[in-house]
Specification:
- By secondary structure, the chain is an alpha/beta fold.
- It contains three helices and 19 strands.
- It has a seven-stranded mixed β-sheet. A five-stranded parallel β-sheet has the order 3-6-9-14-17.
- α2 runs antiparallel to α3.
- The N terminus is likely disordered.
């Protein structure tokens, strides 16, 4: 079985979403840079927008569907793709949020995201010989969760409904519903 792309269900973006580790030497790896340029172009307009309506219009361009008018984003925002971001309703995203979404980032209804939060659905192997490989795993932030300022959510993590991630936490494992986590690495500190 070769690396040939035979149809849209096997393109490089779907392969990443399916959890396939992709080498930088992959013939279609250049497509990641192309979509990053598209995202950067949109973010220039998004981050220079002056009204919530204009921000939502540009955010809709980035993600590829109409963002609900109950969602509020305070710019700047940074994303390397955009099309794998799924946003619910009544979401608040504060300034300087970075979303690397090649693996998929889903944010359910009523989620609050503090300033300088990193949602990173992509990573690389630890071993030096294979570090030039991209691995993507989805992030899911469930209903009514709160992600505190400066927190980092790593690939493959689900934040449960009504959970709280304390400011500055680095979350590498799933957070159960109605749980507060804090620290590096994040650990449960209380139940709600």
């Amino acid at each position: 079985m070769g690396n040939e792309i035979t149809d849209n269900t096997n393109d490089i973006f779907q392969r990443l979403r399916n959890g396939e580790a992709l080498s930088f030497d992959e013939p279609d790896f250049y497509k990641l840079a192309e979509v990053a340029e598209r995202a950067m172009d949109i973010m220039v307009d998004l981050n220079s927008s002056r009204t919530n309506k204009d921000i939502r219009t540009q955010l809709s361009n980035l993600v590829g569907y109409q963002v609900d008018e109950s969602t509020t984003l305070y710019t700047p925002l940074s994303s390397n793709y955009g099309k794998n971001i799924k946003l619910g309703k009544n979401i608040f995203i504060n300034q300087n949020c970075q979303i690397l979404d090649l693996g998929g980032v889903t944010i359910d209804d009523h989620v609050m995201i503090g300033p300088r939060v990193n949602l990173l659905s992509e990573s690389h192997p630890i071993e030096p010989e294979s570090r030039k490989v991209l691995i993507a795993k989805p992030i899911h932030i469930k209903k009514n969760a709160w992600i505190g300022a400066g927190a980092t959510i790593l690939p493959g993590v689900t934040i449960g409904a009504h959970a709280v991630v304390a400011a500055g936490a680095v979350v590498s494992k799933d957070v159960p519903a109605r749980t507060v986590v804090a620290g590096i690495p994040a650990k449960e500190v209380k139940s709600i």
